[in-house]
Specification:
putative 2-phosphosulfolactate phosphatase, 35% helix, 4-stranded mixed β-sheet, 10 strands, alpha/beta, 10 helices, globular, homodimer
């Protein structure tokens, strides 16, 4: 008798509010917050950080600060006063982070990272490590759930484009299937955007929020594809490198 | 002094779970559930129904049945046993519905309709009355919030395509603006789909759910554009015709 092995499936969750609707227990969750949490985290590990502790509340971040930790914290794009750093990837050069332990709290990203704690595994995706993430997933025979951090629980374009880029790579490998409307929509949007990212980025609402704050110098950086091979993952409350 | 009037804005909400994130109080809410609630409702009014009472729970639908109402009720695509009709638009011919009062309960659509009750107005959108909805909205100077009923609180493609088609008409009129990522994504997806709807429809997950139940004979009907001029709206617990 021939046993037909079902290929693992790809699903995309557009908002943390919808995460409970998906079967995350049997999936590797790829958390994505292109502007800017997962891009920043990828940068930190690229530049040699030892580990990063994501915390959800401002109070929690402040407690760590009092204990002497280096704290990165922002809300609505802006650095919190007590924090050592805001949320631009440019701060986290190797001389700042190498070998260090950082505490990290942002508007959307850190909440999304901790949501996946009961899944098979939580890994961090950004355009910076797109191919690394996809190559890693191809070595596993596990379902993939791409969790877009979004903007305050709303859909956003930048995380969706990443979800589309990653889904496309996985589908094209022939190792995965999808019957998920959000995955199909993401791939279609990525197909529109990928050949003219410079113009497409203009549509992104959060780009304009960051611009108002004078923080939009990071946009091109956040859309640079495959600039690193690092793959951060989340385990027992801490981000480390695979 | 010249007062610059801000044009009304378009927003798209991809899931009832996210509805509270939007400012619905100052918006006309267009509820859409292409497969099949809002297509069915548009059909009922096209064929002369007097009014339709949407109810959310099975218990509530059963109570109306005991009082002698004609009840349309389905869950997960299938007609409930006690109901007079399932959820195919083909049932609601003029000889069945003309002048009647129907009670209506479905998996996703009826919940979405009742959510908007504190907004400026709730109207019913489907491909059947696309141009009628857009012409109506152009006569108002109100924000527009397109609420996709989705599938069990998840994103779905068919409601998104309608949101894109309607947003495009409104934006092209020059009377509206949007800074909403979901509205922009919807328009891009509609632009991919509109010139080859026959093939694009194959991607839709709910199409395959209906096919398994032998209920997919309605798909082409649900994607037929501008087959009627009726515009149902929801007020004080009841759907009527504008």
């Amino acid at each position: 008798m021939t046993v037909v092995q079902q290929k693992p499936k790809i699903e995309v969750c557009f908002s943390p509010l919808q995460f409970h609707l998906f079967d995350s227990k049997d999936s590797i969750v790829v958390v994505v917050d292109i502007l800017r949490a997962t891009t920043v985290i990828t940068t930190m590990f690229h530049n040699g950080v030892h580990k990063v502790i994501p915390v959800q509340t401002i109070e929690n971040a402040l407690e760590y600060k009092k204990k002497g930790y280096l704290v990165v914290a922002e809300r609505d794009g802006e650095k919190l006063e007590f924090a050592d750093f805001g949320n631009s990837p440019y701060y986290f050069t190797s001389d700042i982070v190498k070998g260090k332990e950082l505490v990290y709290s942002t508007t959307n990203g850190t909440n999304a990272i901790t949501m996946g704690k009961n899944s098979k595994q939580v890994i961090i995706g950004s355009f910076m490590n797109l191919t690394r993430v996809s190559e890693y997933l191809k070595t596993k025979t596990a379902n993939v759930l791409i969790l877009c951090a979004g903007w305050k629980d709303r859909f956003n374009l930048e995380d969706t484009l990443f979800a589309g880029a990653l889904s496309e790579k996985l589908i094209n490998s022939g190792l995965f299937i999808t019957k998920c409307d959000s995955a199909n929509a993401s791939m279609d949007l990525w197909n529109i955007a990928k050949n003219d990212l410079t113009n497409y980025k203009e549509k992104i609402a959060h780009r304009h929020r960051l611009k108002k704050l004078g923080l939009d110098d990071v946009i091109d950086y956040c859309f640079t594809i495959d600039s690193t091979e690092v793959l951060p993952y989340f385990d027992k409350g801490t981000l480390k490198m695979l």
